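Task: sequence design from structure.
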């Protein structure tokens, strides 16, 4: 994998995983049995995906795309090199430039069944694009899956901003990752930075 590809992967996974200690306090996750409780003490090796962060070129355009799919802005923070903490992520991640401004917007759904989506952008200067093929997907790319309540309305909203679709809304009947039968409507769209987004509207809401 090239250096730029590694940088893109590292940035896309920034702040994706967190330890289960903090997660368990808010979501009621199970913890390892305590020593002396009939079993030897086990290390806490559980993990949870809290947020997937995409590095984008134009953050306002990216925010508009995902808000048209129903996501809600949970936070919006801009950092500069002059602040005590510096530019967010600049000290830790292998960026393709040395930006002096960083902005991260966190979007969430209307329920807490899944993790949040972060959009991260750098400026002055902007980062170089580390993706070689924006017309298709391959190793190292990601596919974001979003569930919506009205896929035709989502399609209309995305069409208003010239979104590139690989598949317009159509019916699907297939098996889920757990082997159960699933059906509903699906479309495939590329976000402004070329990430493939699978938008689904299941026939039976998974609540």
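Answer:
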């Amino acid at each position: 994998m090239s250096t730029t590809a590694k940088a893109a992967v590292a940035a896309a996974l920034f702040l994706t995983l967190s330890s289960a200690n903090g997660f368990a306090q808010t979501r009621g996750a199970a913890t390892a049995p305590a020593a002396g409780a009939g079993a030897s003490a086990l290390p806490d090796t559980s993990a949870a995906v809290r947020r997937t962060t995409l590095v984008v070129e134009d953050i306002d355009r990216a925010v508009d795309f995902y808000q048209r799919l129903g996501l809600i802005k949970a936070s919006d923070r801009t950092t500069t090199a002059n602040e005590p903490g510096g530019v967010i992520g600049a000290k830790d991640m292998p960026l393709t430039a040395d930006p002096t401004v960083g902005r991260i917007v966190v979007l969430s759904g209307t329920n807490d069944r899944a993790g949040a989506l972060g959009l991260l952008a750098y400026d002055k200067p902007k980062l170089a694009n580390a993706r070689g093929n924006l017309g298709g997907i391959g190793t190292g790319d990601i596919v974001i899956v979003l569930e919506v309540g009205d896929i035709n309305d989502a399609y209309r909203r995305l069409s208003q901003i010239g979104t590139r679709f690989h598949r317009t809304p159509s019916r699907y009947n297939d098996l889920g990752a757990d082997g159960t039968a699933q059906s509903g409507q699906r479309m495939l769209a590329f976000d402004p930075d070329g990430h493939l987004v699978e938008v689904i509207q299941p026939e039976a809401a998974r609540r």
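Residues 3-22+48-129+137-202 form a domain with the 2,3-Dihydroxybiphenyl 1,2-Dioxygenase; domain 1 fold (CATH 3.10.180.10).
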